[in-house]
Write a structure and sequence with these properties.
The chain is mostly helical. It contains eleven helices and two strands; from the N terminus they run E-H-H-E-H-H-H-H-H-H-H-H-H. It folds into two domains: 151 residues, Ferritin, core subunit, four-helix bundle (Ferritin, Up-down Bundle), CATH 1.20.1260.10; 152 residues, no CATH class. Strands 1-2 form a two-stranded parallel sheet. The longest helix is centred in the middle third of the chain and has 33 residues. It starts with 8 loop residues before the first strand and ends with a helix.
Amino acid sequence: MIPGVTARRRFDDLSEQEILALAISSEEDDGRIYRSYAERLRADFPDTARVFDGMAEEEDRHRRALIELHRKRFGEVIPLLRREHVAGYYARRPVWLVENLGLERIRDEAAAMERDAERFYLKAAARSRDADTRKLLGDLAAAEAQHRERADALEEAHLGESARAGEDRTARRQFVLTWVQPGLAGLMDGSVSTLAPIFATAFATHDTATTFLVGLAASVGAGISMGFTEAASDDGELSGRGSPVKRGVASGVMTTLGGLGHALPYLIPDFVTATAIAIAIVFVELWAIAWIQNRYMETPFFRAAFQVVLGGALVFAAGVLIGSG
């Protein structure tokens, strides 16, 4: 065994008491996760928060029933056994990871939690040779199936079509403000602002290596600048635009990618081939920006295309003229 690393038990080696203890700790963890989701969503999505409150209460009721069963069969002392102590036992994703992925992702994760638990108990029951253990695991699987049915009932009670539609609109708006808007601004800046220095260098030197270095420097520099500018411009508290770190990352990364798109072709030694590919990529980038504006910002497609393509064409022409001169 590696020093500092605790060996995990195999599920087949657990006693009935340990299986019951594992079920109890799992119910406790899931109830805590549901409450974390509820608190995360309560301000913006109160109806969904109430659904998770109800699911946490269901977990508490099952946990109390399991504790009572343990008390009757094995006494008051419950062994300390958790998911991480058992090899192959289903794991839960960190709450901080899931809750940052949006409303629908949290809903999907909750449904997956119940499916994972039910599937695990069913498979464990099928492998068990002991009749009492098989019955216990089957009962736990049935309990998890009831959780899902109860979750559906809670959604019907607290999350009608109008409430869900309203929350979905709020979630979409938050996604656009936090990720799409700064990312789009970065993509536009990276794609358009780097056109002039890259193509001016290309036509002035006809040296693909030098052109690539200039494009790389311009892209990375613009990405860092845009990222810090976006993060520092608004803390998101009053505007509701979300975390400045998320917005800064979205803006910075997309700015860098926008510039690198037409800088990377200059890794090709042949100048004509590299330039032809770079121009084709610029064309794709500009139309992609127009599509994103139409898809998420609801800008009419042809107006977005005209603005972006015209602006990009002017910057590209300026770079070529400066480099050729």
